[in-house]
Write a structure and sequence with these properties.
Peptide Deformylase; 9 strands; 29% strand; EC 3.5.1.88
């Protein structure tokens, strides 16, 4: 089932999410719905806060990046098969010289900006079976994980922009929170029901 994606301005996007255990109600159904929601919005990642749940879970399917011809064959192959569910994730290390990449977010449609992040991460997480993993990722996969991880920490990519850039975007962000935007997927807007 496709769920509505929470738009910029909803308080759930600024909350630090909480850990869950394997008894979380209807977890497998939730994971399936999140993948369906992400694919329906043409996303490569989706975090639980983006569907209104302040829990430490996100998923990533980096396969759309595999078509980027500027990447090596090895990177394309790695991206083609990268699909993971991350539960109770903790980034243990971030390493390397920061690099810029133009990021967007399903909760902030039609806004894309360069964000600087370190290229390598080490992360501990549990999969959908609650098996624990500690893995290292780099490049685009690390970037998508960092972006989704920020969501469970209550951080949006726009929080990482300069105050000048934030001022330039203020009007567009306000319009998103009021639902004054054209999108082709289901969204929930925090300010639509409030009087302007």
């Amino acid at each position: 089932m496709i769920l509505p994606i929470v738009a910029y301005g909803d308080p759930v996007l600024k909350k630090k999410a909480i850990n869950i255990d394997k008894d979380y109600p209807k977890l497998n159904e939730l994971i399936d719905n999140m993948y369906e929601t992400m694919y329906g919005a043409y996303g490569v990642g989706l975090a639980a806060p983006q569907i209104g749940l302040a829990i430490r879970m996100f998923l990533v399917d980096a396969s759309p990046f595999a078509e980027d011809e500027s990447l090596s064959e090895e990177e394309q192959e790695q991206l083609k098969t990268f699909k993971k569910t991350f539960i109770n994730a903790q980034i243990l290390e971030e390493d390397g010289e920061e690099w810029a990449f133009n990021e967007g977010c399903l909760s902030i449609p039609d806004v894309r900006e360069d964000v600087f992040r370190q290229p390598k991460i080490k992360i501990q997480y549990q999969d959908e079976n609650f098996d624990t993993h500690v893995e290292e990722f780099d490049g685009l996969i690390a970037r998508v994980i960092q972006h989704e991880y920020d969501h469970i920490e209550g951080v949006l990519f726009t929080d990482k922009l300069s105050s000048f850039k934030k001022r330039l975007l203020k009007g567009r962000l306000t319009n998103i929170s009021k639902g004054k935007i054209k999108i082709d997927y289901k969204m929930r807007f925090p300010l639509m029901s409030k009087k302007r």
